[in-house]
Amino acid sequence: MDNRFFRLHKVLRYAIAGVWLINGLVCKILNLVPRHERIVARILGEDFAPQLTRLIGFSELVLAIWIVSCKYTRLCAWTQIVLVVLMNAIEWVLAPDLLLFGKFNAVNALLFIAIVYGNEYASTSKPLHPL
Fold first, then answer.
1. Which of the residues 9, 56, 87, 88 could staple to 123 if both were Cys, CB 3.0 to 4.6 A apart?
2. Could you tell me the keywords of this UniProt record (predicted)?
3. What is the extent of the structural domain holding 34?
């Protein structure tokens, strides 16, 4: 594999992990973006929204660590893709007014999915199937 390609793959891996880290730690655990808690409250209810938001944030931190660990990379990539699709579909239906870019958030989600998929499959000589 070309050295530049390997570096790009590594940079993208850390950038993808950074997205999960920032969303988990900054937006949800530290609650510096309260809109995330409002989305959770809208979807899962007001009663436990703060706790559930932090739990989701912690899960995103675990996912960031998993990405950086390079363990089970195919499973990790598909886990991210499924999570992004599910989260965005639910938010699209139940809380589009709370999304940063409204329903246009779906475009950002698709771009992120393409980067995750491309970084996993373009970086290896493994066949192009999910697992």
1. 9
2. Membrane, Transmembrane, Transmembrane helix
3. 3-122
Q: Domain for residue 33, yes or no?
A: yes
User: CA 51 to CA 15: how far, in whole Å?
Assistant: 27
**Does the residue 129 lie in any domain?**
no
SS (H, E, C) 79-129: HHHHHHHHHHHHHHHHCHHHCCCHHHHHHHHHHHHHHHHHHHHHCCCCCCC
What count of other Cβ atoms lies within 10 Å of the Cβ of residue 7? 10
Query: How many CB atoms within 10 Å of residue 24?
Result: 22
Q: Indicate if the pLDDT at residue 127 is higher than 50.
A: no
Assigned token pair, 37: 């808690």
Confidence of residue 6 (pLDDT cuts 50, 70, 90): confident
In-domain check, residue 39: yes
Q: Give 129's Cβ-side CA count (13 Å radius).
A: 2
| Closest C-alpha to 88, from 29, 39, 45 | 39
Q: How many domains does the chain have?
A: 1
Residue 67 lies in a domain: yes
User: Would you say 106 and 113 are in contact if contact means Cβ atoms under 8 Å apart?
Assistant: no
